[in-house]
Amino acid sequence: MRIRERRAKEKEMGGNNGPSYFILVFILCAVLCVRSFAEAKIYIDITSPGIRQLPVSLHMPRTPTAREIERIIKSDLEFTGLFSFVDPDIRGAELIADIDVDATGGLKVILSIKDLIENKEVLKKRYTSNSIRPLAHSIANDIYFIATGKKGIFRSKLSYLVSTYAGRKELRLMDWDGHTSVSISSRGLTSSHSWTQNGKYLLYAEERERRWKIYILDIMKFKEMVLFSSAGLNLVGGTSPDDLISFSSSKDGSSEIYVIDIYGKGFKKLTMALGIDVSPVFSPDGKKIAFVSDRGGTPQIYTMDANGMGIRRLTFEGSYNTSPAWSPDGKLISYVGRYNGKNQIFMVKSDGADVRQLTFSGNNENPSFSPDGLFLAYDSDREGKKGIYIMRLHMEGDQRITPREINASSPKWSPYLK
Amino acid sequence: MKKLMIMLLLITAVGCAKKYTTPAETTAPPEGPVREEVMREEVLPERGETIMEERVTEKVEAPGRETVVESAVPSEEQVKSIFKDVLFDYDKYEIRPDAREGLSTIAAYLGKNKGINIVVEGHCDERGTNEYNLALGEKRAKSAKNYLSSLGVSPDRMIVITFGEEKPVCTDQSESCWQQNRRAHFLIVKSRFTQ
Predict the structure, then answer these.
(1) Is-contact B140 B89, C-beta < 8 A?
(2) Which CATH number goes with the domain that contains A257?
(3) Residue of B nearest to A249 (CA)
(4) What confidence category does residue B73 fall into, taking pLDDT thresholds of 50, 70 and 90?
(5) What is the pLDDT of residue B36?
(6) Residue among B31, B37, B59, B131 with most chain A CBs within 10 A, to mutate
(7) C-alpha angle with apex A164: A157 to B185, nearest 5 degrees?
(8) Looking at the partner chain, which of B40, B62, B132 has a beta carbon nearest the beta carbon of A209?
(9) Strands of chain B, DSSP E
């Protein structure tokens, strides 16, 4: 009765559909059974050494839109290596995702995940969108979360470079599976780039008209500004949780490590050496910086405290180790090492122990961790032109995500995005 | 007549004003937002993803406005025979003994032709990694610049720029090709750098 009154009132007021939308949700909630969030069961423990695959069924309408959504969800979940798909008409699945797709006038999808062993619904959720891909990735994230208790990375993105013509590289952005590629900056030769940890800004070093500057782009507004400019070479390194940016600059002659905040303030010089200091990246907690220096005669990776003190050499094997990337838990550093005349991806604990080689054919460069630390993006020329690959770190397997005819390199994985 | 003139003036003024208020070019966002809500009480609509694309409208800054100074124009052949690339060893940025003669020739030419300034480009072979190679290329360009400066060429007449491994002259996978790419390359500008 009261609801009816309110609705009538809203109609009079002229289409403010906010409150009525809440009421609708409330009604649905009252009618439909809902997962009790207090006792969330974990179906796959991704931290255990012997990971098993969880058998899952997707039950969808047979329309083209629904099929496409199904393909994207399956491809997301399959690449984690943690799921196997069972035909919904056959027994054997532990979870079934019932996905109802209404594509008339925008996409409306209702997802219902049921635990088939305990025979109860564990999640019911509604999605509205006008584009298929982000919607399908969101559904995959929710299925992944129900199964593992961890956030999925399927809405995250990668920034990367594409060689357009001689001496030019364009900065682009794509989904984690290589789709929905968008150009960010194509006016010169782009080199290093990095995300701020809230995923709102992209930083990049680009040469335009014989000047290397560091630019900052507000991704939502698509607005670019110069963050740092000086004579010489300026290359952005990484970002800290409190929005500091580490970069290298040769403004005083030799290339040294500096920090600055995203407003261009708080400028601080951290290193003082005659040779080359480049590629500074913050540890995820912002307390340390890994960087490359030739102070020992060859390029090697060093770590230091975020104030420039406590410099320590990290790599000792080989005569060429560059491009450090810190894992999201801070425990590992991935880097590129020259081995038998080719560049390969290596992994080492952040204290310098347990060096492992991860790639073996072609040249493999520019490692970047996924926000959950389960995957590593990198570029490789093992199949001809450089392309971007994603490697699983919790089990064997990698795949190329950029088309073969495009020369793509330097992936940088975004933080978790919504 | 006077009235007519004023009106004409007003019309043209309005016309001009219109010209200058053309809005910046915009394109539609490639992806729409996804609205998600868990169907339970106290549902808050979550913020979705929208990427707005807009042409970036930053002004291009000239790399040190170049003011033209009159001087003799060197012919292309002259440039080729005098301004030869300076080559470097793998992962090194020291001037090799075999590069000294070429640099002396350049210094002598610049000594005689005061109106000519140069850009020194630093390049690397493809075997290193991109970022480190940019830093290495800059070191190579600076080594060449410093050597020329030690021979009496004013540093104000030279600017350095690095391209790392991004602009190779040769793309084969061989030592002779890599050697050609590990270079300091010279460009002649008939102007003065005001940075």
Answers:
(1) no
(2) 2.120.10.30
(3) B135
(4) low
(5) 76
(6) B131
(7) 120
(8) B62
(9) 26-27, 34-38, 53-54, 65-68, 86-87, 117-123, 158-164, 183-189, 191-194
Q: Which residues of B touch A123 (CB under 8 A)?
A: 38
> Does A161 lie in the same domain as A136?
no
Q: What is the pLDDT of residue B70?
A: 46
**pTM of the predicted model, to two decimals?**
0.83
Per-residue pLDDT at B120: 98
Give the torsion sign (CA, A303, A363, A174, A235): positive
In a domain, residue A247? The reply is yes
Q: What is the pLDDT of residues B98-144, one digit of tens each?
A: 999 999 999 999 999 999 999 999 999 999 999 999 999 999 999 99
Cβ of B163 within 8 Å of Cβ of A26? The answer is no
Partnered with residue B31 across adjacent β-strands are none
Q: How distant is the Cα of A99 from the closest Cα of chain B, in angstroms? A: 14
pLDDT for res B191? 64
- Asked if the C-beta of A34 comes within 8 angstroms of chain B's C-beta atoms, the answer is yes
Nearest-CB residue to A26 (from B32, B41, B164): B41
Residue A53 to residues A45, A56, A82, A96, B62, Cα–Cα distance (Å): 10, 9, 5, 14, 58
The pLDDT score that the predictor gives to residue B6 is: 53
Q: Is residue A301 included in any domain, yes or no? A: yes
What is the C-alpha separation between B155 and A87, in angstroms, rounded? Answer: 73
Residues A184 and A126 grouped into a single domain: no
Domain that holds residue A12: 1-31
Does the interface ipTM go beyond 0.85? yes
Chain A to chain B, count of Cβ pairs less than 8 Å apart? 163
Taking only residues 46 to 75 of chain A, the set having a beta carbon closer than 8 angstroms to any beta carbon of chain B reads none
Domains observed in chain B: 75-194 (3.30.1330.60)
Which residue in B33, B37, B130 is closest to A126 by CB distance? Answer: B37
CA distance B159 to chain A (A): 9
How many domains does chain A contain in total?
3
**Contact (Cβ atoms closer than 8 angstroms) between residue A269 and residue A290:** no
